[in-house]
Amino acid sequence: MRNILITIEYDGKNYVGWQMQNNGISVEEKVKTAIEKLVKEEVKLYGSGRTDSGVHALGQAASFYTNSNISADKLPYGINSFLPEDIRVIKAEEKEEDFHARYSAKGKEYVYLIYNRSIMNPIYKGRASHVFYKLDLDKMKRASKALIGVHDFAGFMGSGSDVKSTVREIYDIDITKNKDLIKIKISGSGFLYNMVRIIVASLIDIGRGRFDENRIEEILETKQRSMANVTAPAVGLYLNKVFY
């Protein structure tokens, strides 16, 4: 039996998220069904992790076992023929028998897009979060450096999450701007529920002057969720890459 890893891109606005749920259509359901139609057998699809409703992906990863002899380079085309246009498998590769898309992952990279102008650009509607306040990128960049390294990120975790540890490592965070589009790229060993979106919301408040630059450090020290801002909208978040 072969173990296949696929890389997936999707526009998340029409889905309840990656994981199968009873309250709507998920990306996982669509991909699993497409694979089964192609290989003509039932498969168990193992995703690298969940993405919430409305969150997009440029590099979601999932693995499955199959008896099919379809070559890896042809699998994306076959799977895509059964998928809607807002989901695409862009790569497939054969992995070792014990490889697992979730448990073999070494880390992830997310991108958050902010359209920073008084009037939203309709081209980016549904693909970037609109912030009409003028943001000071230099303040945001300086504040973000406190996030790098191993920390207890309890203050940046959304409610309703049950985890053994809230300690994570952030490898890097990069904030850039091209005209009115701000890109926040953050990579790390793993992320708590809504962690990236809460970090982004706090950085936005620093950029608009609502919070001081040392607010990130204060949240890390106190571990109090109430010290951070609301959660930034899902619409601007992309799972960019999974590291193996």
TrEMBL record:
A GO BP entry: tRNA pseudouridine synthesis
Keywords associated with the record: Isomerase, tRNA processing
Residue ranges of every copy of the Pseudouridine synthase I TruA alpha/beta domain listed in the record: 8-104, 143-244
Catalytic function, reaction form: uridine(38/39/40) in tRNA = pseudouridine(38/39/40) in tRNA
Binding site for substrate: Y110
One Pfam family, short name: PseudoU_synth_1
Gene Ontology molecular function: RNA binding; tRNA pseudouridine(38-40) synthase activity
EC identifiers of the protein: 5.4.99.12
Complexes and interactors: Homodimer.
Protein family (similarity comment): Belongs to the tRNA pseudouridine synthase TruA family.
Described purpose of this protein according to its UniProt entry: Formation of pseudouridine at positions 38, 39 and 40 in the anticodon stem and loop of transfer RNAs.
Record protein name field: tRNA pseudouridine synthase A
Organism: Anaerofustis stercorihominis
